[in-house]
Amino acid sequence: MPRETPGDTARRLIRASDRAVLATALNGAEGWPYASLVMIALDHAAQPLLLLSDLADHTKNLQADPRASLLIDGTAGLDEPLTGARVSLQGRIAPVEDDALLARYIARHPPASFYAGFTDFRLYRMDVTRAHLVAGFGRIHWIDSSALLFDATPHAALAAAEAEIVAHMNADHADALELYAARLLGLDGTGWRMTGIDPEGVDLRRTGTVARLAFMDWDEAPVGDAGSARAALVRLVQRARATPRATLLTDDSEHS
What we know:
This protein is α+β, with helices and mostly antiparallel strands. The chain is built from 8 helices and 10 strands. The radius of gyration is 18 Å and the shape is globular.
């Protein structure tokens, strides 16, 4: 497997996250920084999507100055949090009108379906300029967007088929999703559902918990259309069936 670059590490963390701290310049307060918690999803290139209310202070800040930063924290649960990975994204956040992206956001955050139709809520996307990755002591990198983002253009067919793939997996292959969670990711509980698939992996959710099944962790290449996605998902089911959970937790823990 090719060595993971800092951009790969940062993108992996971003794709696995469902929330971030948004930093904006407080409007009318001489540029004082303002930090707030936001829930995020991603487009297939790994650019963050946010569903924001026009009434929120951070939205008013963005309307006055679209420059912003998102801090994504991967240190939860560590005895020494400063040894864990976190990434700060810098870019401009602006509204985007795209029904497929909105559907992707709602799939990632089902409670958002309640207020997504309100007239004061709109979908926003960050046009990422660069990122700052801290992946533990001494592993600190500034990363240009070209090294961070995934070029999803050649994989447009997958984006077009995503909703159908997700619906099919949830309706007809719930057992496969349970296998992914238990055998490949070492996760407890039942009722896992697929919320999205992009060229680099699959997003899962169970109540308020999200999980990421990255194709590269299981020697799978990025997928570009429904056919290659189906083939990868079938191979992963076969691998999961051949991997006892106890073996995963002792021998393959680097994949969890």
